[in-house]
């Protein structure tokens, strides 16, 4: 009779086999993991080598991404989609720059599709000067308004080149094609509050852009042009002495915009001293009028009042009203042309050839500060509609409580005198606003 199987030995054997199987599986998994890890490392290295060979260095990728939009909109003379350069383009530039009156000026206007730039270009062309414009048509505000201004200039024989003030090859090319007698430099990043969202744009436009222009004018242009450029009343910053005089201190800016304009005045002094450039700075005081900037209070208030939207009015902490020295565009244009007409020639070489170069700065204002609330009242009367007002204390966002220009120096040297009161100027603006946006809405409806 056979003896029964030893169940305890069988169980032990089974447990041993199971253990060996688990050990073997673990070894296989571990080996597979190590193999997979090594394969991943090899693949990563291969990808890095591939990107290194075929793409910009990885450390530069962020720079390329940040500037991709700029490269596409601010074209270079070396790009494949060149729309300027060549014989036909040069003929067009020369034609626009040719004066139509004896001893007429030949002026390069930067920011020509901007508010002040458009009006100055039209005024220069109207009196027979040669004018070529330059503008990058950025999207700080509605680019279609800038394109409409460009079309207006084109109808009056002014070419506006689509390019950026920081495009040194383009500036060099323009000054090669035409021996400009003057440059009216109005290109800039405008606005006070926008600096809190995009500070770098102010440095790029107002500081680097000015340096780029002065570099080409000083070191490449022959002859050197006389420079007239737009500074700002904002440079007076926290100054409390009124009316603001060119002799007052400007070392306490209240905004980054003001700081970049103050920096521009220091840069202008440097290029005048070292390179003999004739430079005139103009401190504008709250310019308004037809074809204006939508970010300005009078413009946005008009839009909101007509749409039934509330407007925000500021008051000073002590309860007093915020005041502005509103200056009508036609008066500012007269000041700009007066500065161009009285600008002396650049001397070159820091003035060693023909004596020191001219360096000037002037206020261009109306000399009659008006509470912003009064400006709103005039708009309400012109529009036939009451504004929904939201009154708040003036925040520390770069705005100053008041501006008031002393223009005695501009009167003496430029023959400047403001003649347009606020009610008259706003009436002209409202008439333009209604006509322009009525045409625009009809055009969009029929499209």
UniProtKB/TrEMBL annotation:
Q: Which reaction does it catalyse?
A: UDP-alpha-D-glucuronate = UDP-alpha-D-galacturonate
Q: Which UniProt keywords apply?
A: Isomerase, Membrane, NAD, Transmembrane, Transmembrane helix
The NAD-dependent epimerase/dehydratase domain covers 107-345
- InterPro entries attached to this UniProt entry: Epimerase_deHydtase (IPR001509), NAD(P)-bd_dom_sf (IPR036291)
| Enzyme class (EC, first level) | isomerase
In alphabetical order, the GO MF annotations are: racemase and epimerase activity; UDP-glucuronate 4-epimerase activity
Q: How does it sit in the membrane?
A: Multi-pass membrane protein
Which EC number(s) does the record attach to this protein?
5.1.3.6
Q: Which residues cross the membrane?
A: 35-55
Alphabetical GO CC annotations of the entry are:
Golgi cisterna membrane
The places in or outside the cell where this protein is found are:
Golgi apparatus, Golgi stack membrane
Principal location: Golgi
- List, in alphabetical order, the GO biological process terms annotated in this UniProt record: galacturonate biosynthetic process
Regarding protein family, the annotation reads: Belongs to the NAD(P)-dependent epimerase/dehydratase family.
By what name is this protein known? UDP-glucuronate 4-epimerase
* UniProt source species: Musa acuminata subsp. malaccensis (Wild banana)
């Amino acid at each position: 009779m056979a003896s029964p199987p030893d169940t305890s030995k069988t169980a032990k054997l089974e447990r041993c086999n199971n253990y060996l199987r688990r050990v073997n599986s673990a070894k296989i998994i571990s080996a597979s993991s190590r193999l997979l890890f090594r394969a991943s490392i090899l693949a990563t290295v291969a990808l890095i080598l591939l990107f290194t060979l075929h793409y910009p260095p990885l450390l530069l990728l962020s720079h390329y991404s940040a500037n991709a939009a700029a490269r596409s909109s601010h074209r270079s003379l070396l790009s494949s989609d060149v729309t300027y350069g060549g014989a036909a383009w040069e003929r067009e530039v020369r034609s626009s720059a040719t004066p139509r009156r004896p001893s007429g000026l030949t002026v390069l206007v930067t920011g020509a599709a901007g508010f002040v730039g458009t009006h100055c270009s039209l005024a220069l062309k109207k009196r027979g000067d040669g004018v070529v414009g330059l503008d990058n048509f950025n999207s700080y505000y509605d680019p279609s308004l800038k394109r409409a201004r460009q079309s207006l200039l084109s109808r009056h024989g002014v070419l506006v080149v689509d390019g950026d003030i920081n495009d040194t090859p383009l500036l060099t090319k323009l000054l090669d094609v035409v021996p400009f007698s003057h440059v009216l430099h109005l290109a800039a990043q405008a606005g006070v509050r926008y600096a809190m969202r995009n500070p770098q744009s102010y440095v790029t436009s107002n500081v680097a852009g000015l340096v780029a222009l002065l570099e080409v004018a000083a070191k490449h242009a022959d002859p050197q042009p006389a420079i007239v450029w737009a500074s700002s009343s904002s440079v007076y910053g926290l100054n409390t002495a009124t009316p603001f005089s060119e002799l007052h201190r400007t070392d306490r800016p209240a905004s980054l915009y003001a700081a970049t304009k103050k920096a521009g005045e220091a840069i202008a002094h440097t290029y005048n001293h070292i390179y003999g450039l004739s430079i005139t700075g103009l401190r504008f005081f709250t310019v308004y009028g037809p074809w204006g900037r939508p970010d300005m209070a009078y413009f946005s208030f008009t839009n909101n009042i007509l749409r039934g939207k509330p407007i925000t009015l500021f008051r000073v902490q002590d309860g007093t009203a915020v005041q502005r020295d509103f200056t009508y565009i036609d008066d500012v244009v007269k000041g700009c042309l007066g500065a161009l007409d009285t600008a002396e020639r650049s001397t070159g070489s820091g003035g060693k050839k023909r004596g020191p170069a001219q360096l000037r700065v002037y206020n261009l204002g109306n000399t009659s500060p008006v509470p912003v609330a009064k400006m709103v009242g005039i708009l309400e009367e012109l529009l036939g509609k009451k504004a929904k007002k939201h009154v708040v204390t003036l925040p520390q966002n770069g705005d100053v409580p008041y501006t008031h220009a002393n223009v005695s120096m501009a009167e003496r040297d430029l023959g400047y005198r403001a003649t347009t009161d606020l009610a008259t100027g706003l009436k002209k603006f409202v008439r333009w606003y209604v006509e322009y946006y009525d045409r625009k809405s009809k055009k969009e409806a029929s499209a």
